[in-house]
Amino acid sequence: MADIKDFHCTYDSLSGIPEEVVRGGAFHFPEAYLYADRMAELSLALKNH
User: Fold this and answer.
1) Could you write out the three-class secondary structure of 1-49?
2) 43-48 own/partner pairs: CB under 8 Å, 24+ apart
3) What is the distance between the alpha carbons of residues 25 and 17, in angstroms, rounded to a whole number?
């Protein structure tokens, strides 16, 4: 079984998000991390990437 690791989220940066995903969508940070509907859109874009 895989280990569960804590992730320290820094919502003021694009750390870990490919530049292509950010350029391909209308994502604004940190708003994309603060609202559920925007986080869902970002999550879907990352999945499709």
Assistant:
1) CCCCCCCCCCCCCCCCCCHHHHHHCCCCCCHHHHCHHHHHHHHHHHHHC
2) 45/21, 46/17, 46/18, 46/21
3) 12
In the structure encoding, which two tokens stand for residue 24, read together? 């391909």
Please state whether the peptide bond connecting residue 30 to the residue before it is cis, i.e. omega within 30 degrees of 0. yes
Under 8 Å between Cβ of 14 and 42: no
Residue 31 has pLDDT above 70, yes or no: yes
Whole-model pTM above 0.70? no
